[in-house]
Amino acid sequence: MTKPENEAVGRADGPHRRRPTVYQVAERAGVSIATVSRALRADEPVAPETRRRVLAAARALNWWPSRAAQTLAGEAHDAVAIIMPDLAGPYYAQVVAGFESEVVGRDSVVMVLATHGRAASERLVRDLASRIDGLVVMGESVPEPTLHEVVAQVPVVLLARPALPAVTTVSCENVQAAEALTRHLLDHGRRRLRFVGDPEGTPDVQERWTGFGRAHAVAGVPLTAGPVACERLEAESGYRAGLDVLRDPEVDAVFCANDELASGVYRAAAEVGRTVPGDLAVTGWDDVTLAAHLSPRLTTVRQPMRELGAAAARLLFEQIGGARTPATVQLDTEMVIRASCGCPA
């Protein structure tokens, strides 16, 4: 019997193992292959319980229609998307630029969706998934239940987010770099350090807080206090957090979760009469252009923001092309020593 063109069949992943097929998904869900096809398209009328069974079966088998099969069936969209929690600031701009740089020349359109914590974002994500060939999801921009649904529909790469089973993930190293940067501050004799940034807000900041705490534990220095949560990773939030932190005159160092927060702490320090780095060390993260132009120049951690987006795009197109082995890629970060920590300019 000739199999339909939209089945993901063909080569084996190993000498004895073949890729899962639409027939296996249909059998597991107890439906026809036509129902599987309809259930994977958000705009098709399918009973909610039936769609749930199909998505669960596809997810369990790690199956989705291949790009070749979609093209033969006239279902390829020649579009990919990246979903971000926000678009403000140089970090997100660099990641999107890197992503777009890899898409150029592949005859695909780039779509960008910033969720901004909106209640309607889950519906927007589901709708978007039905109109594209692949998707990159950054940070916690998509709730995990919705993400599982999307993974069953289209190829997905996670970016700067904790890994999920059978899903490709790209991130930058945070914990060891944060531990090294904190140890550097402690080596300068600083003992009352504060962390500015919300570990509950993003996985990256959570990992930086972990490294911060680990360095204290290894050095036998008790934490001065918990993190100072910021509503946004931007200069104004850093300024408000800085004013709060510097009410304690004994605080002698501020570890900021990104460079923009650090610039706000600089402003707060100037207002309350603290000098950087004389009696207050300040560090950042990312090494955006701003970091080298603050006075004093900011000690920070450089992460390859453009490469983060570019790597996610390359891995996404591998998935769209038929790759089924999930990868976990971690890019290196680098401490950049300047003057704000107390080192010579």
Automatic annotation (TrEMBL):
Q: Name one GO molecular function term.
A: transcription cis-regulatory region binding
InterPro entries on file:
HTH_LacI (IPR000843), LacI/GalR-like_sensor (IPR046335), Lambda_DNA-bd_dom_sf (IPR010982), Peripla_BP_I (IPR028082)
Q: Which UniProt keywords apply?
A: DNA-binding, Transcription, Transcription regulation
One Pfam family here? Peripla_BP_3
Provide the HTH lacI-type domain boundaries.
20-74
Q: Which PANTHER family match?
A: HTH-TYPE TRANSCRIPTIONAL REGULATOR GALS (PTHR30146:SF109), LACI-RELATED TRANSCRIPTIONAL REPRESSOR (PTHR30146)
Name recorded for this polypeptide: LacI family transcriptional regulator
